[in-house]
């Protein structure tokens, strides 16, 4: 898997962040099993709760285009320290990926760590808990 390519996409989408309230830019790149990559940025709102994170923007773009399974998600927030996906995004990634989905948490193309989904959301509540 080409982690550097995913980080490059995430960095590009980070520039598209709409974050006038937090001034915190986040970019994400979501690789689906088809091989397609969907980029996303955070999109804030004057009604703060309506904000959408970069990861979910990318995931929802892919799912709405007919994608079904996530293989990897790269995220770039702060360029000074690693920014992990928020709890809501972890839950949404868990909905569309297996426990071994790769989460690439990056500051740059050369400065990143890779985690398995299960490392950052152990014991996830999923469709199997609902008998689905
Ligand atoms: N944010 C993301 O886009 N992804 C995360 O995983 C963490 C938080 C955004 C949401 C909001 O626009 C800003 O960062 C500050 O919370």
UniProtKB/TrEMBL annotation:
EC number: 3.5.4.5
Protein name: Cytidine deaminase
Co-factor requirement: Zn(2+)
Catalytic residues identified in the record: 55 (proton donor)
Catalysis performed (reactions): cytidine + H2O + H(+) = uridine + NH4(+); 2'-deoxycytidine + H2O + H(+) = 2'-deoxyuridine + NH4(+)
Keyword annotations from UniProtKB, A to Z: Hydrolase, Metal-binding, Zinc
InterPro entries for the chain: APOBEC/CMP_deaminase_Zn-bd, CMP_dCMP_dom, Cyt/Deoxycyt_deaminase, Cyt_deam_tetra, Cytidine_deaminase-like
Naturally occurring in which organism (per UniProt): Clostridium puniceum
Binding of Zn(2+), residues: 53, 86, 89
Keyword Metal-binding: yes
PROSITE patterns referenced in this protein's UniProt entry, alphabetically: CYT_DCMP_DEAMINASES_1, CYT_DCMP_DEAMINASES_2
């Amino acid at each position: 898997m080409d982690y550097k390519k995913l980080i490059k996409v995430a960095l590009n989408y980070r520039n598209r962040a709409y974050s006038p309230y937090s001034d915190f830019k986040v970019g994400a790149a979501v690789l689906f099993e088809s091989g397609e990559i969907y980029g996303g940025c955070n999109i804030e709102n004057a009604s703060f709760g309506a904000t959408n994170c970069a990861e979910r923007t990318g995931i929802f773009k892919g799912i709405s285009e007919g994608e079904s399974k996530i293989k990897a998600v790269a995220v770039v927030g702060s360029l000074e320290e690693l920014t992990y996906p928020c709890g809501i995004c972890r839950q949404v990634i868990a909905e569309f990926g297996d426990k071994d989905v790769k989460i690439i948490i990056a500051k740059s193309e050369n400065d990143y760590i890779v985690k398995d989904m299960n490392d950052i959301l152990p014991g996830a509540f999923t469709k199997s808990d609902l008998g689905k």
